[in-house]
Amino acid sequence: MRYLPLSDQDRADMLARIGIGSIDDLFADIPEAARLTAPMDLPRRKSELEVERHLSRLAAQNVPASSVPFFIGGGAYKHHVPATVDHLIQRSEFLTSYTPYQPEITQGTLQALFEFQTQIANLTAMDVANASMYDGSTAAAEAVLMAHRVTKRNKAVISGGLHPHYRAVIRTMSELADDTFDILPADPTGAEDILSRIDNETSCVVVQSPSFFGQLIDLKPIAEKAHECGVLLIAVFTEVVSLGLIEPAGTQGADIVVGEGQSLGNPLTFGGPYVGLFATRQKYIRQMPGRLCGETVDADGKRGFVLTLSTREQHIRREKATSNICTNAGLCQLAFTIHMTLLGQTGFEQLAMANHAAAVKLAGMLEGIDGVELLNETFFNEFTLRLKGKDAEAIVDTLADKGIMAGVPVKRIDPVSKDVEDLLVVAATEINTDEDRAAYAAALKEVLA
Amino acid sequence: MSMNNQGRPSTPNEAGMVAEHKTFTGNKALQIEEPLIFETGRNDVTGVDIDVPLDFKPRLGSHRREAPIDLPGLSEPEAMRHYVRLSQKNYAIDMGLYPLGSCTMKHNPRLNEKMARLPGFADVHPLQPLSTVKGAVELIAQLGRWLLVTTGMASVAMSPKAGAHGELCGMMAIKAALKARGESRSKVLVPESAHGTNPATAALLGYKVVTIPAREDGTVDPASVRELLDDQVAAIMLTNPNTCGLFERDIKEIADAVHEAGAYFYCDGANFNAIVGKAKPGELGVDAMHINLHKTFSTPHGGGGPGAGPVVLSDKLAPFAPVPYVRFEGETAEFIETRAEAKEHGDTPFGRMTAFHGQMGMFIRALSFMLSHGCDGLKQASEDAVLNANYIRVGLADLMSLPFGNRPNMHEVLFDDSFLKDTGVTTLDFAKAMIDEGYHPMTMYFPLVVHGALLIEPTESESLASLDLFIATLRDLVMSAKKGETERFTGAPYHSPRRRLDETAAARKPILKWVRPEPASVEAAE
User: Fold this and answer.
1) Of the candidates A84, A119, B270, B333, which lies 20 to 30 Å from A230 by C-alpha distance?
2) Which residues of A touch B201 (CB under 8 A)?
3) How distant is the Cα of A61 from the closest Cα of chain B, in angstroms?
4) Which domains does chain B have, with CATH numbers?
5) Under the phi-then-psi rule, with left for phi > 0, alpha for psi from -120 to 50, and beta for the rest, what region is B512?
6) What's the pLDDT score for residue B1?
7) Residues of B in contact with A218 (CB under 8 A)
8) Distance CA B236, CA B327 (A)
9) Are B383 and A23 spatial neighbours (Cβ–Cβ below 8 Å)?
10) Does B249 touch chain A if contact means CB atoms closer than 8 Å?
11) Residues of chain B contacting residue A92, judged by C-beta atoms under 8 Å apart
């Protein structure tokens, strides 16, 4: 077996050195009834070539985003990632290293983390950011738990503009942790009255901007009302590129900002692994979940970095930890930070502008089609269409057969909300060409006619 | 033709022998000091060329960002150098033995990386119409089947993002199952040797954690479990093999007692890599167990993630698995995305753990690893992992202290610090001296059941020569400590990119991001 260095002679020599006759002597503690004597009912080993054939066959049954006009977003976005990113994250020293618990020999990972934390804090206009979370949805759920700890209350008010999966994750966590929640109905137009739901028993209010439906939400009045009632505002984004063009939640009064960072550095890969971003105010750092990297000095007085404030974490605090989380998004976070470093402020703003331009052009072409209503007055790179009276999921399937990925039918990921059957969330990014847009508009017109 | 060696010294001169040799740059040959991007980058530099169209009218309303972001950029050659230099300050499996106990740092085959990057996997969106991602769903189903066969369990929830997330998933299924029975129990039993995530997970769901003491031999005594069981206990969370590297030999008896009390058995599968192909958790009374794909099935640790923690479930818990999940009906596999679809099959999912479908990128790598090994290779890998760990035990048993006696262990071997008694060297010092010898230290001070723990897990990826050198190195270090050569330890490491770092100072006054230095004021300059 190509991955196993021991030869049969090695094994025999080692057994002799240990002083036992058979390898099974080392497994003697397993109850006899539970021991496997026959081989498992699975195929035997395969060569590299055979494995490649097997998996390539499966891969060939999928339609890659780059092969068609592609307009699906809804929390994961198709962007161009510079070749440098994937090369660097595959370096052995990054790829095959563990969590940097031994800082003397993991300064590479640690310094990259410190730079990442600074990038996120500056992007969101918050004081501090952690070393990343599993993804945006779990970061949102952790933010709610953190707000409960800070406020010592347990009711979360959840906007109807929050991504339906994020709502479901928060709801699941709240139900099973016996916390309470108030989830507003789906809000395609950004018109919901969330202020009236905030009261003195509320722990936090969770609002996404740009919303799941692409609406840009003014967070300032929500922050104001929240703070009057001693409530934390948790601001969420699923498209980090929007921060290149849109006022960050930090300057609008958010107390915790969480989001999905997949757009930078990370491929779509059918939904994961992605990278959750998490930032907050200085005064809450000891209630924050997740790893943190901090600056210090070594025995020679040289600057270096370490994981810090670990007394919040499960491996030290056990049942008193702020969260049960043990890993961050490691390599996905590294991909993000490398892509961000390549962009810099200048490239990041240009990327955001290119995305917005793509969406404005597409919206302009689609909203003129008979039977299509654009629900957004404002948007970044994603907007919602009402395909009046039509089943959006069926339309999307029909367009997929024509080789166009048209968007996310809301009903597919929000099966419980009412009056969403004809809603379609459409995303445009810098990858779309004029030809892609023209093909989409023509096909949609044809299908709706 | 021989080389012209005239005038060329063949041995280092006296000056070259001095311990400290300072350089102008602070660099040490291949070890190059690297500033932060914020100190070298400029806000008007970018390493990506983007065409910004000008022929459109923005539709941002009043939401436009006013203040600059303040983020420097690097051109591509600068960025390449920055990250290559950073990478060279990291230890990695590809460089040497990485004996972190309970972390399973085994070889990461590059075939798996190549497979995960096939456009048909890497470039598909989670919300594409299902007709365009049939191969992706089939891959999840195939991995699911491999996990069910290797564990002997009834059902699998694929979406948890990491081991601790899998624990949460399993414990949520247990809480939901109790709720469905009309019960709400208040306690969870956790052995003192457990990973910190176990009590943290139980507490997150509002359970009171009751600690089970370890018995003399490092395992859990069914009698102490029975003593703690009552109608308020929801579950026991037991790691097997446990974190002392020992198989809980009374696991069946413990499981039976737990079930009799109406509670569930959560098994922490962090150490499943020791028994794949040798035993099936499903036959040991387990109700839920997460599998760390990044340990047992070798998806890369990546400097701290991403992980993946699918959870296998018993018949009793299967109906509560969160969406999305794969439903197996004979040869066919159906992808269930919503609670409504699940209800049509009579299932009652407790909810959703994450957006989308879980760590697909890790599923591809894990399946690639499993296909490569096959049933025979997986079993051989478990045996080699256990053999290697026992070989290390035998090689060190006379010099280092085994808290539970010199008896067979599983895939990892636990020492305590009594062999360092009166040497003036701590477990931490000992570990740091290993760094100078070119090794990543073992897991230290965990598990908590022994004093100054040193937990060594070599994995199946080490050759006999590698193990022999490792044993010889540790023997030399122990002898050195016993001889009183304390400087080798207390000042260690001497040769790493950084010497020992001040973690106390870091925590006392946390500096968690780079802050632009205030420009020197005009008065001060004058």
Assistant:
1) A119
2) 324
3) 5
4) 113-369 (3.40.640.10), 380-508 (3.90.1150.10)
5) alpha
6) 45
7) 62-63
8) 27
9) yes
10) yes
11) 92-95
Q: Do B375 and A125 touch (CB under 8 A)?
A: no
* Of A159-163, B54-58, B272-276, B492-496, minimum mean pLDDT range: B54-58
Establish if B74 touches chain A: CB-CB under 8 angstroms: yes
Task: Say which amino acid occupies B333.
Answer: A
Minimum mean pLDDT range among A128-132, A168-172, B446-450: B446-450
- Contact residues on chain A for B326, CB-CB shorter than 8 A: none
- Print the SS3 string covering B353-398: CCCCCCCHHHHHHHHHHHHHHHHHHHHHHHHHHHHHHHHHHHHHCC
Inter-chain Cβ pairs, chain A and chain B, closer than 8 A: 712
List CB contacts of A436: < 8 A, sequence separation 6 or more.
A69, A70, A71
Taking only the tens place, the pLDDT of each residue in A348-369 is 999 999 999 999 999 999 999 9
Tell which B residues from 178 to 237 touch A, by Cβ distance under 8 Å: 195-197, 199-206, 209
* Residue A100, both tokens: 């940097």
Of residues B73, B119, B161, nearest to A342 (C-beta) = B73
pLDDT tens by residue, A218-239: 999 999 999 999 999 999 999 9
Question: Smallest CA–CA separation between B26 and chain A, in Å?
Answer: 10
Query: Are B139 and A55 in contact (CB < 8 Å)?
Result: yes
- Using alpha carbons, select from B452, B69, B485 the residue that is nearest to residue A351: B69
Split at pLDDT 50, 70, 90, the class of B525 is: very low
B505 to A109: CB separation less than 8 angstroms, yes or no: no
Q: Is B150 on the interface with A (CB under 8 A)?
A: yes
| Average per-residue pLDDT for chain A | 96
Residue B420 has pLDDT above 70, yes or no: yes
Is B499 in CB contact (< 8 Å) with chain A? yes
> What one-character-per-residue DSSP string does B209-268 give?
EEEEPP-TTSS--HHHHHHH--TTEEEEEEESS-TTS---TTHHHHHHHHHHTT-EEEEE
Q: In this complex, which of A54, A89, A272 lies closest to B356 when CB atoms are compared?
A: A272
pLDDT tens string B38-74: 999 999 999 999 988 888 999 999 999 998 999 999 9
Which SS3 state, helix, strand or coil, does residue B119 take? helix
**Block residue for tokens 């299908």:** A447
**Least CB-CB distance to B196: which of A94, A315, A430?**
A315
Per-residue pLDDT at B9 exceeds 70: no
* Structural domains of chain A, with CATH: 67-80+345-448 (3.90.1150.10), 83-339 (3.40.640.10)
Residue A47 has what pLDDT? 98
Best A298, A327, A356 member to test B by mutation, with max B CBs in 10 Å, is A327
Q: Which among B305, B354, B501 has the least Cβ separation from residue A296?
A: B501
- Rounded Cα distance between B76 and A339, Å, is 10
d(CA A114, CA A97): 17
- Write the pLDDT tens digit of every residue in A275-333: 999 999 999 999 999 999 999 999 999 999 999 998 777 777 777 777 777 778 999 99
At A5-45, the pLDDT tens digits run 999 999 999 999 999 999 999 999 999 888 999 999 999 99
The two three-digit tokens of residue B11, written as one number: 């041995």
Instruction: Give the tens place of pLDDT for each residue, B377-401.
Output: 999 999 999 999 999 999 999 999 9
Chain A residues touching B119 at Cβ < 8 A: 59, 64, 66-67
Do B304 and A109 count as a contact with CB atoms less than 8 A apart?
yes
